[in-house]
Amino acid sequence: MNEHSLIFDLSSEVETADLAVKLGKQLKIGDVILLEGDIGTGKTYFARHLIQSQQTRAEDVPSPSFTLVQVYDTEPGQIWHADLYRLSSPDDVEELGLSDAFQTAICLVEWPDRLGDLVPEDALLIRFDLGDTETARTLTFSWQDDRWANLSKAMTA
Question: What is the pTM of this model?
Answer without folding.
Answer: 0.93
